[in-house]
From TrEMBL, chains A, B, C, D:
Residues 151-384 form the Gfo/Idh/MocA-like oxidoreductase C-terminal domain. Residues 9-139 form the Gfo/Idh/MocA-like oxidoreductase N-terminal domain. InterPro entries: Gfo/Idh/MocA-like_OxRdtase_C (IPR004104), Gfo/Idh/MocA-like_OxRdtase_N (IPR000683), Gfo/Idh/MocA_oxidoreduct (IPR051317), NAD(P)-bd_dom_sf (IPR036291). It comes from Rhizobium mongolense USDA 1844. PANTHER family: CONSERVED EXPRESSED OXIDOREDUCTASE (EUROFUNG), OXIDOREDUCTASE. This is Putative dehydrogenase. One of its GO terms (molecular function) is nucleotide binding. Pfam families: GFO_IDH_MocA, GFO_IDH_MocA_C.
Length: 387, 387, 387, 387
């Protein structure tokens, strides 16, 4: 990876404060390779804790704001104000914060799920288009280089026509009602803060987005979904769900979303079966991709190697054999967000232009998928046309 | 494993002739440990080829019959005639051959699927009860020792209440229309010889039976099934199918049956998720069982070790560390068939009495499951009550 | 695998009685596929227990002998007397029993180590040649089909010139002084019964023989060995040893032999590194062979598949995907012993002639290797020329 | 991981310029979490290329120096001059650059091997002590959290007395003479630039240092080493080496160092065998540690989990299940370097004080080990007392 030549983008954060699950990886990824520069933040629902956290991160005290509206207003007044903001707060706040950010002329990187409904997502999309602002959504796993390899393989016909897609993100960390002790879990199982689903939106949308990256030519025609609340107090939100989908080309997909897959760590896996070969990827071994041609020995493809497609090598930082992890995947995405923003600003983005970029449409599709799943599940697990 | 003390049971075979897929493992397993003794056979649809094959196997030429009806009749006349017969012919012949065998007073070991319809299976069941004859069905993988371990673990509450059951048997050997060249595949994709399904019955019933062994206390309430013929000429028979099932306790199951999972070898896997822990077993590594307690490191249980439940050690032939394979699994089943037969004969079966035994009910349940899956699939993949 | 056409060879056993570690696999492997037929035995150091065991195995009571000398004498008198005998007793008895067997005109299958010294082995070799009798040695793992694949790959130049050979058989079952309770371990750590070494001979010779099979063109020039008795009461016998070897072509090898590799199951692994590629085999996953060409994705070769070399498919019983285990490996060796014997008898052995066959020279080489290792170790771990 | 409260340390780099193998990870790790701040550099042997690279990294042009001596001199004059420097140049320059840096009052982070001889290393050690400066050495893999877990397990007696240590770093990237095309390889196989060894120093010292971290209580008594130049033009430098070592407690170790292990990726593995249990770690799966208690199922310990020892959780950035990679390992080390420097400066280092820190002694021990190995190898692979 070569050093970037553009100036870092002035950037702020909403949420992701001390003790939050996902805050650290946002700034770690954004600052990596100096794509962004952290200059402001409203990190916490507790203003004082948020302010102190920002100062610890090295922020100017005045720019460690008590809440996001104040930040957007104040920064808009500054000549050196933020150009972009990331939103890493609980789900119920995403829509309002993103909307306010766009209205203040900011590019936005928002956590998934982008919002609660397709119509909200469409409103954000319209706004972003009107304002010529980028909206990125942090489907972070998609930044792994082997996902680009998978995409290139499908595109180049290495698998033949696609037949079967098996997706899962099924961990076990919430097998017991841990929400009683853990606030990061508590809001996830409450519809007012989490939205219409728990695991479908929280974990299922990750491999779903990866499937969109690898299989851009396929369209979901109909799906059915069964969801369960094995910890009963979580109802109506599900802690486990199985979704079946039919694509327009006749391919079939399953998606297993779970937080009660006891003893499993991440459990995010993607298997794509074509008429000639299959590929399989597992996010706990993200540097490998299994490539299985029918009638030949299975091959283990390794990140960083010369035999990969060029798209899969662009983000290489360290060569093959050295394991890269989730932080590099996120940093890759943030680089793509940065390049997209710089392009809007008329700067020449180079090199990584073709790489998968989870923008506003990826955010919208995730919300749409959850909406369809919930509609099916709440009707008793029936097939519904994909709307 | 201690040496057996009972005399070998006089035994014959129908089908499983030279070049057949599954014939070798039948006699290899039956003769292992001298449970059975091969004294007669009607091995082939081609009488002459069958006769020659029997002679090569060491049979008396006169008892290597041109066809099964002749065998049943002639053997019934002999004082040293066969007591039991195994049926390893294409599916469409099972019902007639089993029926004839029972009517001739023989114990039967039949290949799966036992027959085409539940009512046929019930007829065989009634006949076997009336004649006091054993009917065994060769769900061979269930003979692996780690399946007994899994069963004991569930029974002893190591997993807690069961929540999720993931079953699959999804190989890739028939990704292309190999039936054009291969007669063993050809009859499988033709409803007149294969019956109402291809992969559901051919492979899906294997992990289904394993789930019955491990989870005897669960009852399927309803299911839905989507089936596809990715090689179009196979329609109406499917080469891929996904089944969802709901159990009476609220648990959910998925079953993936496939012959077009390109590049996969066997692909038979069973994962059982409980509220406390999960277990996972893979038939290509049959000596291991993954045991994953939420919040603890995953454990790899190994066949033959002292820490297993006693049920899992009864069939140990060689101790831990030495891999046993499919032949031992089948030999274990044939030992159980033998003990069951000896018990009917008033001989004292010892030691292995509690071990899983795929009898007439297992055969019937497999046929019932296929029938329900097909009913759902043919109605468009809708939920159907399990009948 | 096709049915054999020759008559079973009349066969007896010495040792391998009830409760012995290795007795079961000998008769299971010999009887498999009717290569041999068990007609006599002297199974136990305890005459009465041995007699009862033979009867349980179905022997004529008169031919279940109290001790081997009586058996050899009596069988030699019978027109239907045994033609071959297997020896599965503790090490210190092998030489005398094999010698007596050969002198009685019997073919012999002997357990490793064949005897205690090279000069004893040479005496047995001379005797076997003089009498035109086969001596087979049960390096059982070498019967796995993937070992034939490895051999063919080296022969065909797939690896290029060989550079590095890493061998290990390092289990952990004797980490503690279990010999206090376990007679099968007790004799192994006593030089009067075990011979000049424990783990070198007991486990190390297994991968050593496999390396001889795969690399017939390499000759050991010199070696050095360090051995340890971590359980002190085992001294002078070692429970762990590391051997370094130099081959005539400049390649280097390491051999790790251990019974105190705590927590390891078998731990038998063979890695062969050539200038172009490496292969790696692990006896706990015997159906796979890793093939790693430098600069290409690693490939997992699977037993039973069409892409293997023909030599690797001869012994296939069940096709790819179905795991075969140690019992098939042993049965393959016994088939080769049987064919070799039949060939001596003027019968036409077909098909498997080129396959690796651990005969008298393999037995002798194992003894030689141990002798060299011990000579080095006892001189303080110095390099010694390979004699 | 909590946000740091100390100000970033002003930091420069020597070497690690555009296209270098290891430059990127140095600044990526140092800048991570704002432990350091890059303010100067002399990145390249080619002054102009180095200058341009520094500017691309965002440096003030004036502080992107043409060579290190100029940098040390100029920065020493500035009130905001660098406080610390990292050295990522070919081996032959380390001694001179480190010496000059220390003489200019800088803390140093140096690449391994620290220098060519023990006496050079001792000179650097004396200088660093006289100047009260930290010298860190980037044995980067040691920063993985599971290494701390391994260390804590040994310390807490989970393995019992240590018996066997198996170390390897054996990749295959230089199986062919790639140095003809690749300058990063070329200097490695030339003694004037690489020093007295190639793979011993280049890769073998990595797992050696890890063993020192995990087993601080063991002392090497004697060793022997055989080294080979499989690509002949590399002689006298080796591209493969096997080292045997005896510790003062009677334990035995092997170290396999290689660049010609064809088809292997990293191949860095550490296995520690105790009387009760073994642990095994592999740098390509750095988030896992296998823990194998004799007589119990093997356990897979996972990074980030609550059951680990506290030392293994201090550096957790993202929780269990999310894979961390080599960049986090290096960032952890750089944090420790930073805290050590801050401590010298009288600032209170907290939290991570007990964690393994590869300082001047680690650097010296690596050089000493290579010296002993070479002495043994050049004497024909004899045992030498460890000096
Ligand atoms: N992309 C991923 O892989 C991934 C992983 C985890 C979480 N997430 C998403 O990230 C978001 C945050 O999840 P989390 O697990 O970090 O939650 P969390 O509960 O651990 O942390 C939420 C943080 O947001 C702060 N916050 C809440 N409301 C705020 C407000 N109005 N203004 C400013 N700060 C506010 C809280 O103080 C806290 O610091 C969620 O939308 C979640 O779905 C994504
Ligand atoms: N349990 C398992 O794991 C497993 C695996 C494979 C096959 N099977 C089942 O075994 C049965 C046989 O399958 P296969 O793959 O071996 O088929 P195959 O086509 O390879 O062999 C069928 C054999 O039956 C013989 N045959 C056919 N009709 C006959 C008749 N009327 N009388 C005597 N012999 C006759 C044929 O000559 C041939 O030898 C099927 O029901 C199949 O579902 C089970
Ligand atoms: N090839 C392999 O993989 C393998 C594996 C295990 C053992 N072995 C070898 O097999 C041999 C036996 O080992 P084991 O572990 O089965 O030993 P064991 O102690 O478990 O059994 C030895 C058997 O030999 C019988 N015996 C002893 N002396 C006898 C005599 N004079 N006459 C008749 N029977 C006698 C004993 O009664 C007992 O049944 C050893 O040489 C050992 O090295 C080989
Ligand atoms: N810790 C590790 O895991 C690890 C991994 C790889 C390399 N290394 C070590 O890092 C060092 C560098 O190795 P590399 O593979 O990056 O080498 P490289 O040849 O790829 O790069 C060397 C860099 O140093 C620059 N350089 C050379 N002489 C210089 C000088 N006098 N002043 C300034 N810059 C100079 C070169 O221009 C080049 O940018 C070596 O000592 C090597 O052993 C360590």
């Amino acid at each position: 990876m070569s050093a970037s030549k553009t100036k870092p983008i002035r950037w702020g954060m909403v949420g992701g404060g001390r003790g939050s699950q996902i805050g650290y990886i946002h700034h770690s990824a954004a600052l990596r390779d100096s794509t962004f520069e952290l200059v402001a933040g409203a990190f916490d629902i507790d203003p004082e804790r948020g302010r102190a956290f920002g100062v610890d991160l090295g922020l100017d005290e005045a720019r460690s704001y008590p809440e996001y509206a104040a930040m957007f207003a104040a920064e808009a007044e500054r000549p050196d104000g933020i150009e972009a903001v990331s939103v890493a707060t609980p789900n119920n706040t995403h829509f309002a914060i993103c909307k306010a950010a766009l209205e203040h002329g900011l590019h936005v990187v928002c956590e998934k799920p982008l919002c609660f409904t397709v119509s909200e997502a469409q409103e954000l999309k319209a706004l972003s288009q009107a304002r010529h602002k980028i909206v990125g959504v942090t489907y972070g796993y998609a930044g792994h280089q082997m996902i680009e390899q998978a995409r290139a393989m499908v595109k180049n016909g290495d698998l033949g026509e696609i037949r079967i897609v098996n997706l899962q993100f099924a961990h076990g960390f919430h097998s017991a009602p841990v929400e009683d002790q853990n606030p990061s879990t508590r809001w996830r199982v409450d519809p007012t803060t989490a939205g219409p689903s728990y695991v479908l939106g929280d974990v299922g949308t990750h491999p779903l987005y990866i499937s969109e990256v690898i299989l851009p030519h396929l369209t979901i025609k109909r799906l059915m979904c069964a969801r369960q609340s094995f910890v009963k107090s979580r109802a109506p939100l599900e802690d486990n769900a199985v979704t079946l989908m039919e694509y327009d080309n006749g391919a079939i997909a399953t998606v297993w979303s779970s937080a009660v897959n006891a003893g499993s760590m991440h459990g995010q896996k993607v298997r794509i079966v074509g008429e000639k070969a299959s590929i399989e990827w597992w996010d706990e071994r993200p540097n490998q991709l299994s490539y299985e041609v029918q009638g030949e020995p299975a091959r283990i493809l390794e990140r960083g190697m010369g035999y990969l497609y060029p798209e899969a090598r662009i983000d290489d930082r360290i060569g093959g054999g050295h394991p890269e992890g989730l932080f590099e995947a996120w940093a890759n995405l943030y680089r793509r967000f940065g390049f997209a923003i710089n392009k809007e600003h008329g700067l020449a983005p180079d090199g990584i232009e073709g790489l998968a970029f989870p923008g506003i449409d990826a955010g919208l599709e995730g919300v749409r998928w959850v909406e369809n799943c919930v509609r099916s599940a709440d009707a008793g697990g029936v097939w519904v046309d994909y709307l």
